[in-house]
Specification:
The protein is mostly helical. The protein has one domain. Helix content is 64%, strand content 2%. The protein has a two-stranded antiparallel sheet. The termini are far apart.
Length: 192
């Protein structure tokens, strides 16, 4: 019997996200028409954006100083690499020559990332649990943030995901041990 969403702890919730995203990638691979590919790619990107927010704003900051920082740094860099591809997929469409290939490569990148996070004993999830983090409290924060992040991304479709670890980024945002706050907006343009 599957665990109810509201009863999941933080790790179970993130793993459920992983399975949902993997399923969406499988559906994309089987999609027969361009409209279906576009719909699935948009759903994939939305789910990945929200999932990334949960990890970067809640799990990773909670883990900072509790587990090996290198693991967290690698997670942020992997997220940023996928964000570049997600932004390109979101801006494009199935009529473009490399569109389906980009989605396929993104699925491979996410498969690698998920495997590393979920690895027994050495993955971020296992290490976080072993560090004694309050998984129920983190899950409660994630459920609330999921709602707001989903609403934000739906209200601004096509808004590119912001990277944190590339040259020119606010790399300090990937090094904090507290929730990330968006930079202030000045004159309609986000400050960086």
């Amino acid at each position: 019997m599957a665990q109810a969403y509201d009863d999941m702890d933080a790790i179970a919730l993130l793993k459920a996200d992983h399975r949902l995203i993997e399923d969406l990638f499988e559906q994309f691979e089987k999609a027969s028409g361009k409209a279906e590919q576009k719909r699935l790619a948009e759903k994939l990107v939305l789910e990945l954006k929200v999932h990334t927010v949960l990890e970067e704003e809640i799990l990773y900051p909670a883990c900072r100083g509790e587990i090996d920082d290198h693991k967290l740094d690698e997670g942020y860099v992997e997220h940023d690499a996928t964000k570049v591809l997600m932004n390109d997929i979101e801006a494009g469409g199935p009529d473009e020559h490399f569109y389906a290939t980009k989605v396929h490569v993104l699925s491979e990148m996410m498969e690698h990332h998920f495997e590393e996070e979920e690895a027994a004993k050495k993955g971020i999830f296992s290490l976080a649990r072993h560090a004694g983090l309050d998984m129920k409290d983190l899950a409660d924060q994630m459920r609330l943030r999921r709602e707001t992040a989903m609403a934000e991304f739906k209200a601004h479709p096509g808004r590119p995901s912001e990277t944190r670890t590339f040259v020119g980024d606010n790399v300090d945002s990937a090094l904090v041990d507290e929730p990330f706050e968006e930079p202030p907006v000045r004159g309609g343009v986000e400050a960086r």
